[in-house]
Amino acid sequence: MGSRERRRVALQHTLQQLRDATNSSAVNKASIIADASKYIEELKQKVEDLNSELGVTESSTTQIDELPMVSVKTLEKGFLIQVLLEKSCPGMLVSILEAFEELQLDVIDARASCEDTFQLETVARESHKKHSVNAHVVKEAVLQAIRNTD
């Protein structure tokens, strides 16, 4: 099989993969590529729609510039707290855990990474029912703990 024939077979194989990935029924090259382009645009629109549903309006590179990211969601019995920082600082985890203690929150489950970036995902609940804390108070306490370690 000559070089030209190998290229033709490889192109046919690639076009078939593109047809399969985009669910295209087109037969000629130009139509397959046009369908693929349309499919990519549809995917981009879906991503934009999902991002707007989630309240994300900027690109992921811009989000990194806006770190620290602190998210606090109210659960049935407590809070899901997620923290992401561009860099890890010594004492960051301790500072955040001390903030939880001041709010009288017990950590039920936690995952943390302090390698290059600082990432924390934890579930915490109030240790005393007499003292009521909301998600906004928890978020502000975590942000203050982060500022204290910078």
Structure description:
This protein has five helices and four strands; from the N terminus they run αααββαββα. It has a four-stranded antiparallel beta sheet with strand order 1-2-4-3, with helices on one face. The longest helix has 26 residues. The protein starts with a helix and ends with a helix. Helix content is 52%, strand content 22%. The protein has 150 residues and is α+β, with helices and mostly antiparallel strands. It is elongated, with a radius of gyration of 25 Å. The chain folds into two domains: 55 residues; 88 residues, 2-Layer Sandwich (Alpha-Beta Plaits), CATH 3.30.70.
Question: What secondary-structure arrangement, pairings included, does this model have?
Answer:
Layout lengths: L2 H20 L6 H26 L5 H6 L3 E7 L2 E8 L6 H11 L2 E9 L4 E9 L8 H15 L1
Antiparallel strand pairs: 1-2, 2-4, 3-4
Helix pairs in contact: 1-2, 4-5
**Separate helix tally:** 5
The backbone outline, from C-alpha atoms, is: elongated
Number of domains: 2
**Any guess at the CATH architecture of the largest domain?**
2-Layer Sandwich
Reading side by side through the largest sheet, how are the strands ordered?
1-2-4-3
Largest sheet: 4 strands, antiparallel
Examine the coordinates and then state which fold CATH places here, giving the name of the CATH topology of the largest domain.
Answer: Alpha-Beta Plaits
User: Which regions are unreliable across 5 or more consecutive residues at pLDDT < 50?
Assistant: 57-65
Give the SSE string: HHHEEHEEH
| Average of the residue pLDDT scores | 84
Strand proportion: 15-25%
> Share of helix among residues?
40-55%
Radius of gyration: 25 Å
Structural class by helix and strand composition: alpha+beta
Question: What is the first-to-last residue Cα distance?
Answer: 65 Å
> What is the CATH C level class of the largest domain, in words?
Alpha Beta
- According to CATH, the homologous superfamily of the largest domain is ACT domain
